[in-house]
Amino acid sequence: MAPKTRRTTVLAPSDTGPTPSPALLRRLLRAKDHVDAASHEAWPVKRLAALSGTSEAHFARAFKQAFGLPPHRYLLTRRIEQANTLLRDTDFSITEIAFATGWESVGTFGRIFRDINGRSPGEFRRHARQIPAPLAAMPACVLKAAQRPDLNIAVLEKRRRMANGTVRPSTREGT
Amino acid sequence: MNQGIGVAGLYVDDQDEALAFYVDKLGFRVHTDVRNGPYRWLTVQHPDQPSFQLGLFAPGTPIHDDATAQTLRAMVAKGAMPPLVLYVDDCKASYARLKARGVEFTQEPVDRYGSVDAGFRDPAGNGWKMIQPAADTK
Prior knowledge:
The complex is a heterodimer. By secondary structure, chain A is an all-alpha fold. Chain A has helices spanning 22-37, 45-52, 56-67, 71-89, 94-100, 106-117, 121-128, 140-146, 155-162. In chain A, helix 1 (22-37) packs across helix 2 (45-52) and helix 4 packs across helix 7 (121-128). Chain A starts with 21 loop residues before the first helix and ends in a 13-residue tail after the last helix. The relative contact order of chain A is 0.13. By secondary structure, chain B is of the alpha/beta class. Chain B has a single domain, classed as 2,3-Dihydroxybiphenyl 1,2-Dioxygenase, domain 1 (Roll), CATH 3.10.180. In chain B, 24% of the residues lie in helices and 37% in strands. Chain B is built from three helices and eight strands; from the N terminus they run βαβββαβαβββ. Chain B has helices spanning 15-25, 66-77, 91-100, and strands at residues 7-11, 29-36, 39-45, 53-57, 84-87, 104-112, 115-121, 127-132. In chain B, the strands form two sheets. Chain B has a four-stranded mixed beta sheet with strand order 1-4-3-2. Chain B has a four-stranded mixed beta sheet with strand order 5-8-7-6.
């Protein structure tokens, strides 16, 4: 008898099912666009699935297959990107930036931020302001996106494993 | 002017849908719409920029094999194609006009130290930034 496949098994690319239709991908993109436009808001899977016209069960899986990251981790990249921008370009306090980018706790924000950027928010701000005026020929909106963290490095996963699963997820995702 | 880039193209999922969007909603004009068998060469142009044509091309035979066409259509639908930029004189006014016509905006106008930009997508998923340059860079 073949071993039963567990749901948590990492799937090889060939096992991820048929390529989604362009129509479904376009609807998933619509949900992603909403996250992009308001990453400070809470994005439970139920809300995203409704925007895509998919079932909740289908959404997270289809999103990850399409965009390479589960929706909650994608949301994290956008929040950190926004926090980076606010730290660099404004004088808002770190507390204000934590709440403005969607965290409910400054402590969680600081911890996750350091995990991803390798610096605390305060250190990031000091460092960013020493760098000369950046890349003015690139549209500001594109430059911002280009400086988004790449969470495929799985730094959070590494830390979660090191912490033996005691670290709470940073976002309220209904996964 | 007779030098410079003449045509650059986009991939779209459905050329009729794209044509309706770029002409009826954005206000482009059809420049060329010709067919050779299953292949349709379709370009539009901005009324203020007659020297440039924007091609609206559908992946598929005979240019692409089926697997390649499917990949290209998926990339467009996932918003993975390169950014496109449309310059306007008044971003907020253009936003209001296009939104009323049903254009799917991904970003409302944002003021960035003088320049104003908004974001929208065409029906296929191609992402546009609509930028009103700062007055001192015009």
